[in-house]
């Protein structure tokens, strides 16, 4: 993102008539204007400027169309400020205000997103699954030429480490429309993503955003699901699924789908929501053993309820006809019958 930065110098003389109303182009340029040489590093989201001996910094700010201006007061000798969650695709403006000697100077830096409207990747969305994998997908911008090529760059907001997508998912042609990566468990709670692009025939705008990983993670189904039934009840138990960061039981939610095996009819499916606080055990009344039953489970964060995939169904209650007391009495009856027939035949 090197050449995206262009600086505009705005000098507000201490004359209040010039304040706010004047743009840089209208200003008299009779005097040599002291410059702060404001620079912006998009990877560190770091705005820096030159602090001469007689410079006292006052404030820095960022203006976006969405959020308007956000300003920060500065320490006198502070010569940089960071906007860790900044999103740059809307071409924000940065400002630094400082006193250079007796004069107050506000310098503005416009960050641009060059390229045609509608050339940026669209509908960018990312998903974390199996605790360590991340998939991102996007659509080619409608105004982007067919020879566009996109790349995805990721920065971890906690460590500052960055990486490019190691494995792109291609469309029918060669345009990248997604990314698959492993190592998401090493990320902090938030990442910055940038999808930029090139094309020999047009300028391509970039798309960027910050993502809270908690909001894009889907959980594996619970592990080691077991079910044991007696004549009247069934006890279901399971292990907490693997999740990227530790969550207490209270923050987990499970859903059960108890159903007649192989039945698609909604009336044969009983959905049960269970809080993780129930310590991974659920006791329910055994369904009538007329048909085979099965149970499957899925998990989610209890506050977001973004359900993960279902587990494999676990069969239960099947063949219970022939088990337990019923099975034993059948065996006894059968044996008795055999003995009686044998005795009858033998005594004839
Ligand atoms: C921003 O840049 C300044 C000056 O180069 C440096 O001292 C500071 O550590 C940087 N901050 C970050 C968060 O990179
Ligand atoms: C800083 O200000 C002092 C007093 O106004 C002046 O003598 C000195 O030359 C200035 N230094 C610079 C680097 O402008
Ligand atoms: C940034 O400044 C330019 C020049 O004054 C202006 O046209 C543009 O709308 C500003 N952008 C934002 C996001 O405020
Ligand atoms: C992508 O997003 C645009 C709006 O930004 C929407 O009109 C379009 O239907 C979306 N495309 C897909 C494939 O979801
Ligand atoms: C993620 O992408 C990989 C590679 O294309 C694919 O095999 C997998 O099914 C995807 N997983 C999810 C949950 O989308
Ligand atoms: C996309 O951004 C990355 C990171 O700033 C940069 O290294 C790369 O050159 C950019 N690609 C294009 C096509 O601008
Ligand atoms: C599932 O059960 C097996 C055997 O008891 C155990 O080794 C394994 O660690 C369990 N899996 C999980 C995720 O707890
Ligand atoms: C069956 O299991 C349930 C739940 O564990 C228990 O409350 C009940 O007493 C048991 N019934 C029989 C007949 O063992």
Unreliable stretches (pLDDT < 50, length at least 5) are: 1-30, 320-324
| First-to-last CA distance | 103 Å
Count structural domains.
3
| Largest sheet descriptor | 5 strands, antiparallel
> Shape, please?
elongated
Q: Which structural class is indicated by helix and strand composition?
A: mainly beta
Spatial ordering of strands, largest sheet: 1-8-7-4-5
Mean pLDDT: 85
From the 3D coordinates, which CATH architecture of the largest domain would you assign? Sandwich
Helix content: under 10%
Number of helical segments? 2
Element-by-element helix/strand order: EEEEEEEEEEEEEEEEHEEEEEEEH
What is the number of E strands? 23
Strand content: 35-45%
Q: Could you give me the name of the CATH homologous superfamily of the largest domain? A: Immunoglobulins
Bound small molecules, deduplicated? 2-acetamido-2-deoxy-beta-D-glucopyranose
As an assembly, this protein is single chain
How large, in whole angstroms, is the Cα Rg?
Answer: 33 Å
Q: Which CATH class of the largest domain?
A: Mainly Beta
Task: Assign the CATH topology of the largest domain.
Answer: Immunoglobulin-like
Subcellular location: Membrane
Membrane topology: Single-pass type I membrane protein
Main location: membrane
Pfam families: IL3Ra_N, IL6Ra-bind
Would you kindly provide a written description of the structure presented here, covering whatever features stand out?
This protein has helices at residues 213-216, 324-347; strands at 5-10, 39-41, 46-48, 55-64, 68-73, 80-82, 93-100, 103-111, 122-129, 133-139, 149-156, 162-164, 168-170, 176-182, 190-198, 207-212, 223-229, 233-239, 252-260, 269-275, 281-285, 293-301, 314-316. With 348 residues, it is mainly β. It has 3 domains: 39-110, Sandwich (Immunoglobulin-like), CATH 2.60.40; 122-217, Sandwich (Immunoglobulin-like); 219-317, Immunoglobulins (Immunoglobulin-like). It has a 5-stranded antiparallel sheet, with no helix packed on it. Strand 11 (149-156) and strand 12 form a beta hairpin. The longest helix is centred in the C-terminal third of the chain and has 24 residues, at 324-347. 25% of the residues are buried. One 2-acetamido-2-deoxy-beta-D-glucopyranose binds next to strand 3 and strand 6.
């Amino acid at each position: 993102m090197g050449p995206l930065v262009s600086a505009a110098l705005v000098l507000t003389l201490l004359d209040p008539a010039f304040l706010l109303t004047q743009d840089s182009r209208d200003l008299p340029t009779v005097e040599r204007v002291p410059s702060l040489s404001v620079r912006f590093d998009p990877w560190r989201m770091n705005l820096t400027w030159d602090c001469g001996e007689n410079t006292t910094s006052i404030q820095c700010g960022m203006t976006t169309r969405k959020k308007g201006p956000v300003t920060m007061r500065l320490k006198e000798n502070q010569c940089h400020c960071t906007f860790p969650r900044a999103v740059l695709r809307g071409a924000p403006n940065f400002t630094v205000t400082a006193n250079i000697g007796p004069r107050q100077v506000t310098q503005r830096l416009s960050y641009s997103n060059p390229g045609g409207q509608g050339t940026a990747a669209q509908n960018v969305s990312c998903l974390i699954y199996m605790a360590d994998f991340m998939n991102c997908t996007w659509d080619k911008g409608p105004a982007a030429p067919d020879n566009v090529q996109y790349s995805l760059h990721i920065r971890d907001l906690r460590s500052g480490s960055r990486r490019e997508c190691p494995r792109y998912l291609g469309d029918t042609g060669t345009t990248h429309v997604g990314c698959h990566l492993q190592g998401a468990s090493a990320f902090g709670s938030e990442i910055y993503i940038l999808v930029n692009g090139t094309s020999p025939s047009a300028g391509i705008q970039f798309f960027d955003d910050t993502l809270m990983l908690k909001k894009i993670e889907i959980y594996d189904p619970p592990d080691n699901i077991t079910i044991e039934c007696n004549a009247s009840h069934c006890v279901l138990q399971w292990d907490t699924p693997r999740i990227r960061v530790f969550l207490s039981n209270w923050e987990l939610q499970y859903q059960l789908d108890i159903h007649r095996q192989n039945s698609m009819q909604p009336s044969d499916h009983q959905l049960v929501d269970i809080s993780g606080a129930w310590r991974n055990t659920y006791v329910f009344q055994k369904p009538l053993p007329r048909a085979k039953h099965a149970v499957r489970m899925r998990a989610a964060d209890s506050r977001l309820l973004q359900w993960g995939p279902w587990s494999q169904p676990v069969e239960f209650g099947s063949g219970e006809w022939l088990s337990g007391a019923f099975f034993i009495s059948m065996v006894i009856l059968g044996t008795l019958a055999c003995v009686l027939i044998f005795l009858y035949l033998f005594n004839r």
